[in-house]
Structure formats: C-alpha cells, structure tokens
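[Automated response] Your request has been received and processed.

Submitted sequence:
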Amino acid sequence: MKTFNILIAVVFLTLSCSKDEITENNVTTTIPTESIVVNKTVLGLTINQTEQLTFTITPTNSTNSTVVWSSADETIAEVNSSGLVTAKAIGITKIKATTSNNKFVEILVEVSSIGNWEEITGLPYGAARYGCIGFVLGNKGCIGFGSNYHYSSDFNVVTSSGGNLNDFWAYDFTTNSWSYLTTFPGVYRSGAISFSINNKAYIGLGSNYVNNGFDFLKDFWEYDLATNVWTQLADFPGNGRNSCVSFSSNDYGYVGLGASGSSNQTLLNDFWRFNPATNSWTQLPNFPGVARAGAVGFAIGNEVYTGLGGSNQSSTNTLLSDFWHFDSLSLTWSQKADMPPIASRPNVTWTSSGRRAAKGFCINSKGYVGLGYGNAEIIPINYPYPSFTEPYQKAFDFWEYNPNTNIWLQKQNATFSGDFAFNSSTSFYTGCGYYSYQGNHGGGGGVVNTFVKFTP
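Generated structure:
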C-alpha cells in the first residue's frame, strides 16, 4: 500500500514551528489534532474518473498537521499525495486520511462501469405515443395507454388526427421485435399504474379528463398473458389518483403517493399493498416525506425504495430529490441519501436539483434511476426568442444506487428520454414520447417511436 504525506506549515509571528511542536520563548508547546474531517463521506466513481478530496483539521492551529492519504485497495482506487482519487476497477474500497497523532477518517469508495446505451427497433409508427405505461410479462416488455395527438406551436390546437389510446403492444427481448398484444376493456386513462406478478399484469387508477375536469379512477384490472383475458378486480380503496408510484416485490404490488382532488391539486402520502392471491388491499404506514406526485419507485427483494417527484402541482419550483426506503417486513420507513442533482446539459441551466417522472428499476440487486423532467432555464439554439424558464425540461442523466453502501454512481447519459420504461433481467428499455419540432419549446410537435436500451 502506498502512502503520501502532506505537510501544512503553521506560521505564527514571534514563534517557530516544527512538525508537532510550537516553540515560543524557549517553551515548547504541543497542540494535538482533535479531529480530521474530509469533504466526502462516501464517493461513487466510474472507471478512470477522478475526485479531489480535501480535509479540515480541528483545531486549526494543531501541530499534528501532517496527513497521510492511503487506499485499502489500489487496484480499485488510488489516491495521491494531494488527496486526488482515481478509480481503477469495479469494486468497493476505502480511502483513509490519517494525521501524525493517528487521528483518521475513512471514505467509502465504490467504482462501477459507466454502462452503455444503444438504439434498437422502435415501436411501429402507427403505435407511437406519449404518456404511456410499461411493464414486463415473461420475456416481453409491454406498453399501453397514451395519446398520439399532434399540437400546434401554442400546444393547444390539434393539427392532425390522433387520440387517446387503449391498445397494448409487446416487445420480445429475444427477437428484438414488436407485436400487437391486446386492447384494454375499461375506460381510457392517463397517469395509470402498472406492475406485474407471476406473469400477470395489474393495471388501474389514473384519471380521465371529462367536461373540463378530472375524473379520478379507482378500478383495478388483471391481464393474463397466457389466456389474453382481462379480469376486473377489487377497486383500489384509497382516493382515486394519477401520477402515483407502483411496483411489485415478492408477490405483492405496491401503490402510493400521487395527485387527486379538484384540478388535480391534492397531493397524497398514503401507501398500499395489493395481494393478488386474495384480491385484497392493505393500507401500510404513510410515506413520511412530503406528499408528492410524479415520484419514482422500485423494489430490491423485500426492500422498497421511492422518492423524487413534485410537492406542488401549481408550481414549477418544488421538485424533490429525497429518497426513502420501506422495509416490507418490519413496515418501517427510513430516509437514504438524496439523489444527486441533474447532470449538466448543453444550453441548459437547471434551476432545482429535483426531478419528477423519473424512471426506476432494479437489476442484480442495485437500483437505477434517471431521466424524467427538471426545472431549467433554456438558451435556445437557432430560435428567435431569448432564454426562458421551461418547466419540466427533459433530463438525460442516469444513476446507479447501491443499497448496501447508500452510494449513487452516475452512469452514461441516455441518448433519449422516453415516456414508458420496463426492464429485463439484464437491461433497461425506454421509448416513445412527445418532442417539439424546435426542441422542447415552441414550433409544435408530435410523437416519436424512438426506443433505446441501457445495459449497466
């Protein structure tokens, strides 16, 4: 193990200084270091990425001011004499900073690969849409609902044929091909939930805009891929809602948070568990964070994770980055490390660190979260207007969360930020969405059928 020394000279008028002592008027005084603090407690890096660590010693006039940097495993991460850490290989190690009187602090470092995005076969053009949902059944990723309207530059007038959609399509992970799957027998909706358990899909809730108002839905359905049959199940017992989180874990489905009430302004913090074996719902302890809509959620075994979203439907400056864990066995909540701020984009200045409508999933006992929307100030390219604030500008960054270390690691930025998402056992897929002809503001727009795949 290599170690490096940093010697900090502490200079006082009318006195001389040595490594561990101060001599004044022939009297030698030792001022021991009481503590050392480093600017990071945990650190997530991808291979070849670097991070500069800095330290603070207490008291500031300590005579034990020599600091030694060391790495527990230099094959994973190296540290030089100034505290610059360089990631070398996938793994977990510790960086240690030690003073000359043996006060020390350790920083947990996790190194991961950056991952890879690739564009693959898109949904057939006639089936392209935005505002859809996604889930997995066997070796197929499925999408449904959504709309395919096209709008004019004021985003109000429909300029070509389109409508709200109730059909579902399936992507075969093996053949890299799409096929029509089924049509939902209930009413059309947006902001619906979906999850899958034992090769059956469970879909419901959401809202339908009727007579200039929201009709919040509570119906809940099961779709059996083997028989191609829809069955209506017990209604959701909480408030009807949209933009809530939903996912499955160990043969249970979980649903919570979301928006309801007049003009879609009432935000909720309740959480529920669905048991398909008994067709019954159980209310769980309420989410302890701020009530919100557009949050993200996923499960790793018995452990459930949720967070992010927006805490005010009428404001664009209330996007959240907090992240929470729910133990489905003890039925207790605990807060984890916040998701890092949205990564930079050219010509975009993010005005808040949070995001809503992010995509989340689990592969190999790690969580992955990213995409969605953030608040931003935009500097248009080849556009006749000055910079402007754009609510819910698309984010393209992607992050890996390790529940064992509570560390977030940035992965490769996505090449496309889609509306629906699902994942296989090895990869994550996202696609479709609404894109304007002039970026994300003005000029009208329409749906796209782009489909991309991320492999960690």
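Summary generated for your ticket: Residues 138 and 369 are 23 Å apart (CA to CA). The chain is about 0% helix and 50% strand.
If you did not submit this request, please reply to this message.
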